[in-house]
Design goal:
alpha/beta, Rossmann fold, 2 domains, six-stranded mixed β-sheet, disordered N terminus, sugar transport, nucleotide-binding, Lipase
Length: about 500
């Protein structure tokens, strides 16, 4: 399947782009990009981090001005460039990965926020604001308490609030940037249903996601960018995840299961009867030196809560935990780190890394004792430690002092992993390590995981994407409603077997 997918001759494009070019500091970010989006279409914009997706969205929404010669047609009007006001007035909305919402404000205030903007001050009509919010949510088939602060709701509901806010802005075209990056499978299914509702009502959606299964499920066509250039526009009919990966990266990735015998290796972690009422019950598991144990399951399975208990951040009510044969009971995560347990959080942006801080500071923050001399931090030890892990994990950076936020998602995740490897752990718990990471970077991260296991590190790999644990773990535990209900060995079963059990 090559070339450009034909546009339905019976429908005029809502958005049509031609000759879009953008250069930053002599670096060509976009090169003659052009494609169309139809009214009511769900269209995927695919590409690795750094391929130009965000730059293209910012041009369409007026944040950036493209180079001369660009043609942007929207609903029959032609522009050489758009301003943010022009784009919003035309009905173009963006829901960024960080949502750009106000946690301390109510749901109603977040949804109706744009209706309050203007040059003249005015009194706030809270009754009208609530009605506006409820109407927008009803259009999505969702009911929320609009008077509650947004911070009271989990990320899945916040996504819905962001979509409702776009509808208040009379959206005709909505860009969704990694909308499912922090969602579980069941939350993702609900969000995709909402996207279908938008599409059926005539709103076009451009969906940006690194989860290729979602791309194939939700979109009718996809535009692929690579290194700022258009690879092509394709129908998703007959498309496969591996084919999309090849188009995005220009490479072929072989997915094979790990067949290793670690049964003779010493046990690093042994858990018996571990329980925390309301979260998980009667958990029993072992992880051996050099073994990768996968844990998967749906929303409410208790996977993350189990990980937080093993890391000393939640206190189990009963059960035992042994580390290298010795019973442990952690009072805090400091105790866990000191004992040799490391935990990579699923929420990289809020919990895993400190975005305004430097790459170097983020990497060493969990291992300050290793870079002190005479009670003071040693700049030379810090530089050496950072340089070592950047080299070992193949992280692409500018300078060690650059803010971590300047890195791509894949490189940020490598720094997050390096932060914990620098503590010299015995057990590494990876909770959804590829959230918000593109397919090429995912492959690199799992190469690192495989090398760490081969070097003897015990690893727990948690993911709600079954293929991740199937292809990268020696054993897989299936958790449901706080219990381990199945155990699988990838060498002795198929991917379909585990998916059937998890998604039944």
């Amino acid at each position: 399947m090559t070339g450009r997918a034909s546009v339905d001759s019976g429908r005029k494009p809502l958005l049509s782009l031609r000759n879009i070019n953008m250069t930053f500091g002599g670096v060509r970010a976009l090169k003659d990009v052009g494609f169309d989006v139809l009214p009511g279409e769900v269209h995927c914009l695919a590409g690795e981090n750094g391929s130009g997706k965000s730059t293209l969205i910012k041009i369409i929404t007026g944040v950036y001005r493209p180079q001369d010669g660009a043609v942007i047609e929207f609903d029959g009007q032609t522009y050489s460039h758009m301003s943010p006001v022009t784009a919003q007035n035309a009905g173009i909305q963006v829901i960024w990965q960080d949502l750009a919402l106000f946690p301390e404000m109510t749901v109603a205030e977040n949804i109706a926020f744009q209706t309050l903007l203007g040059r003249r001050p005015r009194f706030v009509n809270y009754s009208s604001m609530r009605k506006t919010a409820e109407k927008a949510l009803a259009r999505l088939g969702v009911t929320l308490d609009v008077d509650r602060p947004l911070k009271d709701y989990p990320i899945a509901q916040r996504q819905i609030v962001a979509i409702a806010r776009a509808l208040v802005g009379e959206a005709r075209l909505v860009f969704m940037d990694e909308p499912t990056a922090s969602l579980t499978q069941s939350e993702t299914d609900h969000l995709l249903d909402i996207v279908r509702t938008l599409s059926a009502s005539g709103v076009a959606v451009v969906f940006v996601s690194h989860r290729l299964a979602e791309v194939l499920e939700i979109s009718s066509r996809l535009t692929v960018l690579r290194d700022g250039a258009l690879v092509g526009v394709y129908s998703t009919g007959g498309m496969t995840q591996s084919r999309i990966t090849e188009l995005m990266t220009g490479k072929t990735f072989d997915q094979t299961i790990r067949i290793r015998d670690v049964s003779a290796n010493p046990v690093v972690l042994e858990v018996e009867g571990l329980s925390l009422p309301g979260q998980f019950e009667g958990i029993a598991l072992t992880v051996r030196r050099g073994e990768t144990l996968g844990i998967t399951g749906l929303l409410g399975a208790g996977r993350t809560e189990l990980a937080l208990s093993l890391f000393g951040m939640l206190k189990p009510r009963s059960g035992t935990v042994k580390l290298e044969g010795k019973p442990v009971r952690f009072s805090s995560n400091r105790d866990a780190i000191a004992a040799g347990v490391a935990y990579l959080s699923e929420d990289r942006l809020s919990l895993g890394l400190i975005q305004p801080q430097s790459i170097a500071d983020n990497l060493v923050i969990a291992s300050l004792d290793r870079i002190t001399s005479g009670g003071l931090l040693s700049d030379s030890r810090k530089r050496d430690l950072v340089a070592q892990w950047i080299a070992d994990l193949g992280v692409k950076i500018g300078q060690q002092g650059d803010a971590i936020s300047t890195l791509s998602g894949g490189n940020q995740q490598r720094i997050a992993i390096a932060k914990w490897l620098a503590t010299d752990p015995k057990l590494l718990i990876l909770d959804a390590p590829t959230v918000g990471v593109d397919v090429g970077a995912r492959a690199g991260i799992f190469e690192i995981v495989a090398k760490l296991a081969d070097s003897g590190l015990a690893i727990i790999l948690i993911s709600d994407e079954v293929p991740e644990v199937y292809f990268n773990a020696d054993r897989v535990l299936h958790m449901a409603q706080g219990r381990v209900v199945n155990q699988f060995t990838p060498a002795a079963c198929s991917l379909a077997d585990i998916e059937a059990a998890v998604y039944a």
